[in-house]
Specification:
Elements: E1 2-7, E2 11-17, H1 24-29, E3 36-42, H2 45-59, E4 63-69, H3 78-90, E5 98-103, H4 105-117, E6 123-128, H5 131-137, E7 142-147, E8 150-157, E9 162-166, H6 175-192, H7 194-201, H8 212-229, H9 244-253, H10 261-278, H11 286-296, E10 320-321, E11 324-332, E12 335-342, H12 343-350
Parallel strand pairs: 2-9, 3-4, 3-5, 5-6, 6-9
Antiparallel strand pairs: 1-2, 7-8, 10-11, 11-12
Length: about 350
């Protein structure tokens, strides 16, 4: 079991290991004064884990209520968020109570945003059950919902009080969800860690289980360091969005159905690296090396839109400031930086 402490505006631990959901109540009791806790989950995850989580919370002395929503990115919207607000009000939750996000990235983003905004703020804990959520979205305090004009455009920074990454939960994931999470793992290797990239190249989607806890720990440690240096996404934290500017546009192109976040990010990394190599902004051969890694994790995919077709959707990207946008480019494995371009230059870059 590993514990990584994040020293952000709220100091909290990320605990990584097996069997954590069965004893989550004791861990959560140590970080909140709440008497009552709202477990927010989707209709896939709740059927597997909700009973054991509620049992542990009840044994720890919490009054437990649960809100279940339909799984999928299309639920990460204002309609579901308003239903969560209504649920909290009907059950008389107060500012001293707590929300627990049980599930993947969609659940964590939405439950976190609800905790940031309902009564202007409640305690919040993350119980991530997907690889993508454990290595990325559960840590760092970014919460959001989607709107038709783009992904994660409405949100708030809200650091959790605790993150429990139960690695046993990953064993119940369909292979597609494991593949999806590996998109973010490859991202961390590309932006900050050549040693992590070497580990990934020595394994594949079937053998990665041998080093899974180490993989999660490395990714969370990288994110911890970046978040501590730039909690509110004004500088270095932008690096975490490598592949995301085009990836989010791909997701929007498919109306958030048919292509998952991790796969879209993988394609975004491939596109941006290919264009960077053509324009001598990265080492020759880097695209082929990245593609070799993506192929090991079934992330070498094809999409209908080309990079030049995605520029318009990028105009609402969160890394845009005025007439400029910061494009994250890896010049080599483990070496990344934001490159500021005007919107016009970025459009030319994509073409």
């Amino acid at each position: 079991m590993e514990t990584i402490t994040v020293n952000a505006s709220v100091k909290y631990d990320v605990i990584i290991g097996g069997g954590l959901l069965e004893c989550c109540g004791g861990y959560i009791k140590n970080v909140t004064i709440a008497d009552k806790i709202a477990v927010i989950s989707d209709d896939n995850v709740s059927g597997i884990y909700l009973d054991r989580v509620k049992k542990s919370l009840t044994e720890a002395g919490f009054e437990v209520h649960s809100f279940i929503f339909p799984h999928g990115e299309t639920s990460k919207c204002s309609d579901t968020l308003n239903k969560i607000y209504g649920f909290l009000a009907m059950n008389h939750f107060t500012r001293t109570d707590c929300i627990a996000a049980l599930g993947g990235g969609v659940t964590g983003d939405m439950a976190g945003y609800a905790s940031a905004t309902y009564l202007r703020g409640m305690d919040f804990v993350q119980l991530p059950t997907s690889l993508l959520a454990q290595v990325d979205s559960s840590v760092g305090g970014k919460t959001a919902i989607d709107i038709p004009e783009g992904k994660n455009l409405v949100g708030a920074f809200k650091q959790p009080k605790l993150v429990l990454c139960d690695t046993d939960a990953l064993r119940t994931l369909p292979k597609d969800f494991l593949i999806d999470g590996m998109g973010e793992v490859v991202k961390y290797a590309m932006i900050k860690s050549a040693p992590l990239f070497d580990i990934l190249m020595k394994h594949d989607i079937d053998s990665i289980w041998e080093v899974m806890e180490d993989i999660i720990t490395r990714c969370v440690t990288i994110k911890r360091d970046v978040v501590e240096a730039d909690e509110f996404d004004k500088g270095e934290r932008m690096l975490l969005n490598f592949g995301h500017t085009l990836g989010h546009s791909i997701e929007q192109y498919y109306h958030y159905t048919g292509i998952s976040h991790g796969r879209a990010v993988a394609k975004g990394m491939e596109m941006i690296t290919f264009l960077s190599e053509k324009k001598n902004l990265c080492r020759n051969g880097l695209t082929d090396q990245l593609l070799a890694c993506l192929k090991k994790y079934c992330l070498d995919i094809s999409v209908e839109p080309e990079a030049k077709d995605l520029g318009g959707a990028c105009l609402n990207d969160k890394k845009r400031a005025g007439s400029c946008i910061s494009v994250i480019i890896c010049s080599d494995i483990g070496v990344s930086s934001p490159v500021k371009m005007t919107v016009e230059d970025f459009d030319k870059f994509l073409k």
